[in-house]
Amino acid sequence: MSVFASLVARLADLLEPFFHASAAAAAIVLFTACVRLAIHPLSRATARGQKARTKLAPQIAELRKKHGKNPERLQKAILELHAKEKVSPLSGCLPSLFQLPAFFLMYHLFSNQQIGGGPNELLTHTLFASPLGDRWTDALADGGVFGAQGLLYVALFAVVAAVATFSYRRTKQQMAAAPGMPVAGPDGVQLPGAGAMGAMAKVMPLMSFATIVTVAVVPLAAALYVVTSTTWSAVERAWLYRDIPAGERAVATAAKGVPPCP
């Protein structure tokens, strides 16, 4: 933790001539961008895997019909198909998983009063008069929604809401364009997992808005990380999947059987 704190402090020192009192906040945004650049190859690999899974969707639909009454055999058949085609069913979640350590480091760094046995001086840094270690509740207690700190959170919420709305509309379009997965076998009996898939289809488009709750409850520094990373994800996915029709992306998602990771 002390090494990470030193890294953020050094970045802030480098940016101080340009951002002055907000140098630490700028350092967090820069650090987030570096993390996203580091995992960009994984995102590109995920996009390639998505295209490969698109081609497997019809075969997986047939496997669901054939082995619908035997969940274990169905799972084995799908895994064998992925192995045969050299496609990983979990590759879509790798970029998100690799971000978690950086997020938790940022969260704990600005949640602790002491680092390495001494006072955590990063907590003295601010962004437009808002301490980087404070939360939305602290902003509400100091001036309310339209106070200096409250307005900063209003801006953050607006950015997150705009990104979430973009992601929501894209997910709805993808799911609407996707051909329906079979929910029952030839004998009319519901296939295993069909009910869960239906519930997931209703909830999945709304998951983008969960980021707003995260921004509201974590320290401002961690909120900056989340806002930067979420915005990056939306732009990155729009660029990486620009040559894939929405319907094809939805078919690939349905073939995986899991919601796409942000």
Topology as H/E string?
Answer: HHHHHEEEEHHHHHH
The helical percent reads 55-70%
Describe the main β-sheet briefly: 2 strands, antiparallel
What fraction of the residues are assigned to beta strands by DSSP? Answer: under 5%
Tell me the Rg in angstroms: 22 Å
Give the CA-CA distance, first to last residue: 26 Å
Q: Supply the number of helical segments.
A: 11
- Number of E strands: 4
* Alpha-beta content class: mainly alpha
* Average pLDDT reading: 78
Low-confidence stretches: 178-192, 247-260
Strand order of the largest sheet: 1-2
| Basic shape | elongated
Task: Kindly describe this structure.
With 262 residues, this protein is mainly alpha-helical. Helices cover 68% and strands 3% of the residues. The protein has 11 helices and 4 strands; from the N terminus they run αααααββββαααααα. The strands form 2 sheets. The protein has a two-stranded antiparallel ribbon with strand order 1-2. The longest helix has 30 residues. It is elongated, with a radius of gyration of 22 Å.
